[in-house]
Amino acid sequence: MHRLSGFLRIVLLLVTLVTLCHARQQCRLVSKLDVQPEGSDPQAPLSASPTSSSQTVSQTASASATPSITPFNYGKDTIRGVNLGGWFVLEPWITPSIFENTNNSDIIDEYTFGQMLDADYALDVLQNHWDTWITEDDFAAIAAAGLNHVRMQIGYWSIPITSADTNYTTSVTPYIAGAWPYLLRALGWAKKHGVHVILDLHGAPGSQNGYDNSGQRGSADWAQGDNVARTVDIVRFVADQIGGMIDVLELLNEPGGWQSDIADVIGQYWQDGYNAVRNATGTSLKVMIGDAFLGVDNWDGFLTYPDAQGVLMDFHEYQIFNYDQLEMSQDEHINYSCQVLQTLSNYAKSNLYTVSGEWSNAITDCAKWLNGRGVGARWDGTWQSNQPTFGSCDGYTGNMSTFSDDYKKFLRKYFESQVAIGEAVQGWIFWTWKAENADDWSYQKGLEGGWIPQDPTDRLYPDICSNSTS
Ligand SMILES: *[C@@H]1O[C@H](CO)[C@@H](O)[C@H](O)[C@H]1NC(C)=O
Ligand SMILES: *[C@@H]1O[C@H](CO)[C@@H](O)[C@H](O)[C@H]1NC(C)=O
Ligand SMILES: *[C@@H]1O[C@H](CO)[C@@H](O)[C@H](O)[C@H]1NC(C)=O
Ligand SMILES: *[C@@H]1O[C@H](CO)[C@@H](O)[C@H](O)[C@H]1NC(C)=O
Ligand SMILES: *[C@@H]1O[C@H](CO)[C@@H](O)[C@H](O)[C@H]1NC(C)=O
């Protein structure tokens, strides 16, 4: 606790008060409200404004006289944002140093980080990381770059649900808890700098996809046992505690719908999670769901008005995680972006407001440990044998000092082709703001290196998708 500033202590105190309050069921962070549905447009009620009650709570909970932030007009204004990847959920490829410093190559994710290290040491490292990886200066830089949103990841193990809030276990062993007050501090920074927040449950009990970015690499057991029901309690708790301090709550990142047990439960989970959030907060807080790798067309008519309101669809757009995508030429990558644009805009026309919520400038999977700690890349054949290879990884990732002028020129064009996707729907969120050593994935380095414009509405290729689509 010696690292915590006075401000953070105040936030902690408030959290404690709020938690006590919550446990006694004497007060709610956000009171219920009813928004009268208007018209029959499935998306119309989305622009409902937060009530004064949630505004008051935001100001109280951020514990300082920060200026109030104008509610974002979803559907009318375009989301332009970055993810704050690798902050409250570790990813070995974003911060390899944290993993290297353990001297233990069996530590491959946040789960094993908690499991295999001395708890005091692990907490110390994590607190230092939570305190330094993203700071208020980053929020200022994000706002200065013309971005209006951050998407912030949180793992279930960081959410301080108590046994009064759930009939399921509250144990998070072996994860190291403690990120929550740092998250609350960040919400204050976001507000101060006029940046809107999508809070994204990135890791659920059991792991919803088996990726290290869910907290635990290996099998995806989320659909087993009580995990799904427990997750509904967790999102209700989040909505109840901080629903007035965030703009959007994303119920779960990237559930692995390729697994039949997950595909079987995901629709009901979106519905139950939606109900839980609505019951806790009324309609000012937006709810985000994802396509679960099943394609947006799988969700035609799902959670649209009047069955639901204020729901957004998150689609993730990467072009590097299979051999068919890796073998595309640079021109074909641009073409691919333009095809995604068509698919998403067709869906969004009669369905949920749609956001391209993760994408990057990478056209290779070369970033060190991108496929997992100790795992190589498809691109250069250092991972799987008897598969196509595409050459050396040199000059594609790592330090931008190795990037050629031609490559940087392409990165700008590729960036614009993917921005075009989000601009054709309700917005876009780049993955990610910073990475220790993967500049093709870094918005910050893109600004510095010139392949990401200082004003995200600037275009060198204004008609990039006008010829390449059907
Ligand atoms: C890892 O090894 C280095 C060099 O021997 C040492 O300084 C450091 O304390 C070790 N870290 C841990 C977590 O044991
Ligand atoms: C826990 O179970 C009791 C008894 O069935 C029920 O009244 C209560 O609402 C449940 N609590 C939660 C948080 O679901
Ligand atoms: C939300 O409220 C509705 C109506 O009161 C109720 O039927 C439903 O069970 C609640 N859902 C959750 C998840 O609390
Ligand atoms: C773009 O992709 C479509 C569908 O794969 C293909 O038919 C078309 O030829 C491609 N165009 C270019 C310029 O590569
Ligand atoms: C990237 O390379 C430049 C030039 O060699 C060097 O000055 C800089 O420290 C490097 N950055 C990182 C993060 O290693």
From TrEMBL:
GO biological process: glucan catabolic process
Renumbered residue ranges of the record's region Disordered: 39-62
Gene3D superfamilies to which the protein is assigned, alphabetical: Glycosidases
Domain Glycoside hydrolase family residues, every copy: 127-360
Keyword Coiled coil recorded: no
InterPro entries: GH, Glyco_hydro_5, Glycosyl_hydrolase_5
Composition skew (Low complexity), residue ranges: 42-62
Pfam families hit by this protein: Cellulase
A GO CC term assigned to this protein in UniProt: cell surface
N-terminal signal peptide: 1-23
Keyword tags: Glycosidase, Hydrolase, Signal
Domain of life: Eukaryota
Keyword Lipid biosynthesis on entry: no
GO molecular function: beta-glucosidase activity
Family, similarity comment: Belongs to the glycosyl hydrolase 5 (cellulase A) family.
Protein's name in the database: Glycoside hydrolase
